[in-house]
What we know:
This protein is an all-alpha fold and about 120 residues long. It has one domain (about 1-125). The chain is about 90% helix and about 0% strand.
Amino acid sequence: MRNQSATATRENRMSYVTEIFMNRQIAEAATSLEVMQAAQQHKLEPDAKKHALLARVMREHAERFQRLATQQSVMSPDEFFRRAFERVRVMRAEAAQLAKIRREKREQHEAERAQIIADMNLAAA
């Protein structure tokens, strides 16, 4: 009985370590995927040097993504890609939410500043 408990605990630890490792791998792959998508959807002016740099960055991150997908043996490459792409969606949603919060705070501060200036002008008059 005690031996079974130790085995179960060891398996749980290994499962936890595998899950942590996979989350890290998926996060790295998602970063590479996001960089590749950003490079594809660039808005740079036509310039050979800039386009060459973009192509190099895209190639490096594509190779990195492919290497991460082949290094792991826990899930199929399709599942790995799906999870990485889902992670990109989550990252973008979080970034959009943060941008919205910052914009709302900035607008609130601008309104408060305008109110203070208006009050000061009214008091001075």
